[in-house]
Amino acid sequence: MVNCKIMPTPVDSKSKLSANESAPVSDPTLYRSLAGALQYLTFTRPDIAYVVQQVCLFMHDPRESHFATLKRIIRYVKGTLDFGLHLYPSAPNKLLSYTDADWAGCPDTRHSTSGYCVFLGDNIISWSAKRQATLSRSSAEAGYRNNLI
User: Fold this and answer.
1) What share of the chain is helix, strand, coil (3-state, %, to 5)?
2) DSSP bridge pairs for 50
3) CA-CA distance, 26 to 63, in Å (whole number)?
4) Rounded Cα gap, residues 102 and 138, in angstroms
5) In whole angstroms, how far apart are CA 75 and each of 7, 99, 111, 145?
6) What is the per-residue DSSP string for 58-89?
7) 64-112 pLDDT tens trace
8) Cα gap 128→46, rounded to integer Å
9) Contact predicate 77/2, CB 8 Å
């Protein structure tokens, strides 16, 4: 993928990955290897953490649509090699936290995904994105559950 087209975003925001939406990949070992390598990259690239987590959900039975998403992530990373966590000298005079959740975002289980990030001064010190274990009946309930992480 040295000469691949660069993508502006790591994921197509209009589509959701599903378990049985296309044919199985011809080489599941390659899929698992690439997904595992991207998992390591998420330590310094929180911008791809959500979508990498999504493709890793299908490591047991990867499909061609999942592999296409995996390649899209790689094309995004190729165009954003200078992105990553940067630590700046700053007076840690404020602690800021941001949180968000979707409502029934997974097309297979209807579970919500939530996440948060915490900044000390200008530096990010903690973040997380995960699928919620229980179902939410409304977006307000999904947001409430997000605050319980």
Assistant:
1) 35, 15, 50
2) none
3) 9
4) 10
5) 6, 28, 28, 34
6) TTTS-BHHHHHHHHHHHHHHHHTTT-S-----
7) 999 999 999 999 999 999 888 777 787 778 899 998 878 777 777 777 7
8) 9
9) no
